[in-house]
Amino acid sequence: VLESLWRSGWSNYCGLGALIISPTRELALQTFTVINHVGKYHEFSCALLIGGTDVEYEKSRLGRVNIIICTPGRLLQHMDENEQLLCDQLQILVLDEADRILDMGFSQQDPVFVSAHERCAHVTPDCLVQSYMVCEDQDKVNTMWSFIINNKKSKTIIFVSSCKQARFLTGAFCHLRPGLPVMGLWGTMNQKKRVDVFQKFENKEVAAFIVSSDRRFDLTTGNGVDMYRFDDSIA
């Protein structure tokens, strides 16, 4: 995004040049952080538009930003309420995890699937190992506990189906003291606490992270992360 704008001669006086839409606040925040770090030698201005923040403060800045990173709901709010949001000169539109955004109900038609790599038959990295285990519902919590106990020297992310499950399991496993930090992240958690918890997990060498499935983010720290999903089926 930065290179494309720079090569096109875009300047900080040209207005909004790039719009990046992410499905969750966490992913949008990560993208915003990376853009600011990589683009510190450019003059482009960047704004983050996500729920849980001061919308009036956001409105006052939009007339002079070059790159907007946002979640769909907050973008729709600004499009409806904010005359400062002008997209008539937009050069780049990025839909981060487009399939996820469409699944969230922001499209009334079936998504069109495209290959992420022109010459690849699939987008799964060659080094990624995928496996599954079938167990009865009453055994899921014990199985999850076994995963945590047997991965004390690694970072483990466990996705569960609801905020209630994430909150309950985080509290229960913290109480059981498995010998490594146990953290949780779910949609009903307030924005500041979500950011704090996620940053703590990123900075840990080992930890178990229990996350409700509505949360999306990109994890780039560490040599490897074990990820597990506890779903009703393997489909």
Automatic annotation (TrEMBL):
Signal peptide bounds: none
E.C. no: 3.6.4.13
GO-annotated molecular function: ATP binding; hydrolase activity; RNA binding; RNA helicase activity
A Pfam match: DEAD
Keywords: ATP-binding, Helicase, Hydrolase, Nucleotide-binding, RNA-binding
First-tier enzyme category under EC: hydrolase
Top-level taxon of origin: Eukaryota
InterPro entries associated with the record: DEAD/DEAH_box_helicase_dom, Helicase_ATP-bd, Helicase_C-like, P-loop_NTPase, RNA-helicase_DEAD-box_CS
Gene Ontology annotations for the cellular component aspect, listed alphabetically: P granule
Alphabetized SUPFAM superfamilies for the sequence: P-loop containing nucleoside triphosphate hydrolases (SSF52540)
Domain annotation Helicase ATP-binding: ranges: 1-207
Domain comment (free text): The Q motif is unique to and characteristic of the DEAD box family of RNA helicases and controls ATP binding and hydrolysis.
Function: RNA helicase.
Family note: Belongs to the DEAD box helicase family.
Protein name stated in the entry: ATP-dependent RNA helicase
Organism field: Teladorsagia circumcincta (Brown stomach worm)
Top-level taxonomy: Eukaryota, Metazoa, Ecdysozoa, Nematoda, Chromadorea
